[in-house]
Design a protein that fits this description.
This protein has 219 residues and is an alpha/beta fold. 42% of the residues lie in helices and 17% in strands. It contains 8 helices and 7 strands; from the N terminus they run βαβαβαβαβαβαβαα. Bound molecules: zinc ion (ZN) (2 copies). One zinc ion binds next to loops.
């Protein structure tokens, strides 16, 4: 199991970074990227704090811990600058909080995220357009299928439009508390529920994580 999007009490999650990592290790996760919500505020601070516990985990645990951020509710025009700042501050992956159907995310957020070279994952993008999905494919931005309630209302649409564009999905928990961490069987149910074929489910759970791990610096 791999998870490239979850939260700690550095934003609105309940666990410390190291407890989240230990609980994921105990559940058999091989990869965990901690992507707490940030804007211009808290960006460097959050990356610095998360990196300390990721370094600890990488030295002493069996999983690969990745310091990341989720740019959340920032004005779309600021995404390139903030994503670049996050990478300079040491974030190995940048997630953007996309236009979920359940929050007033600024229109244009999806378009700005998929156009940005420093963005790795567009999370829960809601009613993603075919054009945005095509740009995501061209720029190698992974589009998220989410296990999180609410955000997951548009998983079926996201799967369909990304398939049409020839792009790539990533499945994430977007966990905020221990009960949000899922097992492989549930991950497969979420993906099948989004309309993926058996081959697409295998690719999403096996190949996509390898690519994101490479991008974050580990084979
Ligand atoms: Zn989000
Ligand atoms: Zn999130």
């Amino acid at each position: 199991m791999h998870n490239f999007h979850c939260h700690t009490f550095l934003s609105d999650g309940v666990l410390s970074p190291i407890e989240l990592l230990r609980r994921c290790e105990a559940l058999g996760y091989q990869t965990v990227a901690i992507a707490d919500h940030v804007g211009a505020a808290m960006l460097e601070f959050t990356i610095e704090q998360v990196t300390r516990d990721c370094d600890l985990a990488n030295a002493h645990m069996s999983l690969f811990a990745i310091p990341a951020v989720e740019l959340t509710h920032v004005p779309p025009a600021t995404i390139p600058e903030l994503a670049s700042r996050a990478k300079q501050a040491g974030a190995r992956l940048v997630v953007v909080h996309g236009e979920t159907p359940v929050e007033p995310v600024a229109p244009g957020t999806n378009a700005a995220a998929v156009a940005c070279a420093d963005v790795d994952i567009l999370a829960h993008p809601g009613l993603l357009s075919l054009e945005e999905a095509a740009t995501a494919r061209a720029n190698r931005v992974f589009v998220e299928i989410t296990a999180r309630g609410g955000h997951s209302l548009t998983n079926g649409h996201v799967a369909q439009v990304v398939r049409q564009a020839g792009g790539e999905w990533v499945l994430n928990t977007d966990a905020h508390e221990p009960g949000d961490l899922i097992d492989r069987a549930f991950a497969e149910r979420v993906l099948r529920g989004a309309g993926l074929t058996d081959a697409e489910v295998r690719r999403t759970l096996n190949d996509t994580p390898r690519e994101l791990r490479r991008r974050a610096g580990r084979t």
